[in-house]
Amino acid sequence: MKVKRIRIWLGLLVLAPVLLTMTLVSPAQAAPEEVVFGAVIPLSGPAAPWGIAMQNVWGMLTDQINQAGGMTVGGKKYVWKLVAYDSAMDPSKTVSAVNRLISRDKAKFIMILDGGLVQAAQPITEKNKVIVVAMATPGKDYINPKNHYTFMYGMDAMTASFLYPWVEKNTDVKTVALLHPDMWTGKATAELTRYGISLTKLKIVFDEFADQAATDFYPVLTRALATKPDFLAVANWDPAVGALLIKQARELGFKGPMHLVTPDIPTLKEVAGWANCENIFLDPYIDQPNPTMKAFQDEYIKRYGEDQWPGPVGYSMYDYPGWYTQAIQETQSFDTTKIVGYLETMKMKSIWGEPAWMGGKQYFGIARVPLYPIYIGQVKGGEVKQVIDGLLPGDL
Amino acid sequence: MVEPGTKMKEVPESGPAGGKKKWPALGLLAFLLAFPLMTQDDYFLHTAVTIFLFVLYAASYRLILVTGQLHLGANAFIGAGAYASAIMVRDAGFSFWLAIFLAGFIAAILAVGIGYFALRVKGVYFAIITWGFAEGIRFLYMRVESVFGGPSGFFGIPGPDPLPFFSRIDFSEKTHYYYLALALLLFSLWVLYRMEHSRFGLILDGIREGDRLAASVGVNLMGYKVATFAVCSGLAGMGGSFYAHYTYFISPNDFTVLLTIFLALYVVVGGMERLTGAVVGTVVLFIAGELFAGYGFYRMMLFSGLTIVVLLLFPEGLVALPKAFRSAWAKIIKSQEARTGGGPA
Amino acid sequence: MALDVFIQTILNGLTIGAIYALLALGLTLLFGIMDILFFAHGALYMFGAYSAYYLVVSFGVNYVVAAAVTLAGIGLLGAVIEKVLIRPVRGEVMAVFFIAISLNWFLENSGFALFGIKPKRIPPIFHGKVEFLGATLTWERIVVVLISLAAVAALHLFLTRTRWGLGMRAFSEDPETAELQGISNDFVCTLGFFIGSGLAALAGLLVASLFIVTPTMGEHAVLTGILIIALGGLGSIPGALIAALILGFIESFGASVLGADYTWGPMFMFCVIFLIIRPTGIMGIERS
């Protein structure tokens, strides 16, 4: 019986000091001069490349803003502090991290990757009036009038609303096959793609999901191509997987155009083979990166190395630190309700150009999607032609 | 799976346990009850609730391991409890207080269903069957969207309705959840402890050490195994139900085989031999995971590195530490004696 | 189903099956000898792929040479793992199992740190494709299938015709008697890990030229591998091949007929039901 008592004491011995320490050590107060830029992103697991890239981008941008003088509100100076936690793409860990950001780090601005995880966090963030930016494909499930403080990072697959009308007008395509990754993003992309096609007379002949983790897509591509589509939409797959899909579709004999979102040209060349990329629509694609983009990429590579540059998808991570700073400066306030109201009408500049503004009222019922000039390219004769060049999105 | 020389459990005493050794446990209990009063920090409360839940899962999981079955499908039953409860409350209008028990019951029935077939085999076969079964169930959650919500998950799950007489406890605050989780955990630990420290538990031990021998003396192997499997899975299912009404949102990715692997890890690192092992293992590893949280992808490396080291040094688990210390100490003493030329001739 | 689609589906199944067989080979060997489900097999597969990638693309080494170096290197890594991490706790089944799992996590995450975040691929070595009744098969896939089958055959011959191989089998049946007969237990285990890891690396480097290389490619691979060896009969090499082909065909036809999103569930349930009826797998291997 002595043995048993020792074990209970051991349990106590281990538990108590830990819990005691956690209780007594006061959580780090965000010093008045620091404003937390929170991020809940995957830093481990299969999605880690995205999360790590985001951490790098925001770390660099907040540093740059701070070095340029930070923000001045009510005569006092403030600087950004990036606090990033690993969500591991797990809802429970996401909720835990969001809790930590709000109660310990006093964050009022949080970036969250993946729409499903945003939804898991929203009950807490909305209650606390914390501004959330979803690094995800827009979905009505979480972008809606009920979630007043949740924003989109960008247009993402909403560009479908402009691509397909262009395709209908400028090519012979009549039928489209859709292949989405079997996850939340895929589902949201599917809805947006279908919506975009519904604006045209194109017919959807195939509309299915496939496991992103699979390596061999011959089976599902065989099935898709059996419907003899003119156009294959493989939007919103992980860039390398998308490239693999392109390669395998070409091997199976498909010669038509395909649509790939957030493409990365070096990956395409390496995984798909450039010859196979003929006719592919790259979205977004900008022929001549503008000075902002060039400076951004150069600075990133200088800081983190060539190997860590995520490609043009990095541009999608660029805008918010600057927008927050602008909104705070122009409202002279950290009150998130005020800032949200201001963002709805703020005249913004995006890394994609100007003008940029918050839109999406028609589709979502609330203006929470940044709209900016659209650039889409198509590979023709080994060169990428800019087929949509700075088109301003209309009412969305 | 059974190492020769595994210590047989102590014979349970008749009558109430001696008063003296209750004090440390009571002290811990007092601390846990008072904890929310010491801190209003939502983050700490959330961590505590999550730890309670995981200890519940791990403790119930452990008893299945004790019967000698390597179970890789615990996530299926936790998920079943979660989805069942969520559907009952959100879509069928049940009260949470009814749903949680029904959910546990459903998980138990499910366990009987698969257990009846799977428990006939042991070891890796059982592991793979339970894993496959869990994936099959997860497939249902993913594909039968109208009922389960599909890959985007099931949300809008209401929290528990206010207690009948204490309507102030309406679960709008984390503290309310804390006490509910603690109560659920204590209830489950009590059930598991009573199961193990009783004649039932002795028979389970016998089954683990040599099931053919046990069968030859008339023990209904399948009966005991299925019963244990069902009770443990039912408790886990109740935990799952709590989880659903705590996070208001569940998705198929919440219940993958990874969850089971973590539970097994907690139990093995803590020590399978005693119930305390599940508790210690869960708390230590979970807190380690949280502490490493700020390190990006090094977090997993640190965590897995830690578990490798612990497993290499203490293959029997942390709970065997006192024993390890004592045997190490004894060895040191013995080598001292040998060197000074002492000891019996 | 149209004829060309049907033929394509069969060819797809064959390819998938052959690649799965390669994955399962090392796993079933390790299980057969050591009674462990060596989870870290996935990480070694991934390391094999990256090793080949860096040798070929960054150092410009000839592919065959790179393959040889990779096989030897990863094999040695496996042997070291056995000596340092497995042998101290050999016999403690649970501890070994979880050390392997933890090791898999550890290596996988170190992959992110070491290899960067962008997925990679080795440029194709064999170009061109073959048309067959309306279906296509690229030469690189044909080569991979052939190498897979050769590896299976080679391993089988090794275990049945060579001294070392027979020694391994003796060890797996009865370690103590084998030791008495002069077959060093330690040596067999180390050799087993060397070969098993080498096979994982082989699968990895072949896949690297066919598909893409990411630090997490091992996860899906090892889980599928475990399913295959269970189905085939733990420890059985012909079983692994047969099970791999069966699963390959199920996956191929399932994806083409039902759709990939509806295939994986039934595939798991098929395995579960099969194993309930016949837990010892296709080849009926008795294993405690």
3D architecture notes:
The complex is a heterotrimer of chains A (396), B (345) and C (288). Chain A has 13 helices and 16 strands. Chain A is an alpha/beta fold and 396 residues long. Chain A has two domains: 34-135 and 291-351, Rossmann fold, CATH 3.40.50; 158-286 and 377-391, Rossmann fold, CATH 3.40.50. In chain A, the strands form three sheets. Chain A has a seven-stranded mixed beta sheet with strand order 8-7-9-10-11-15-16, with helices on both faces. In chain A, strands 2-3-1-4-5-6 form a six-stranded mixed beta sheet, sandwiched between helices. Chain A is globular, with a radius of gyration of 23 Å. Chain B has one domain (27-313): ABC transporter involved in vitamin B12 uptake, BtuC (Orthogonal Bundle). The relative contact order of chain B is 0.15. Chain B is 70% helix and 1% strand. In chain B, helix 2 (42-66) packs across helix 12, helix 3 (74-91) runs antiparallel to helix 4 (96-118) and helix 3 (74-91) packs across helix 10. Chain B is globular. Chain B has 345 residues and is mainly α. With 288 residues, chain C is an all-alpha fold. Chain C has one domain. A two-stranded antiparallel sheet of chain C has the order 1-2. The longest helix of chain C has 32 residues, at 3-34. Classes of the chains: A alpha/beta (396), B mainly alpha (345), C mainly alpha (288). Chains in contact: A-B, A-C, B-C. At the A-B interface, helix 1, helix 2, strand 3, helix 3 and helix 4 of A face helix 1, helix 2, strand 2 and helix 12 of B.
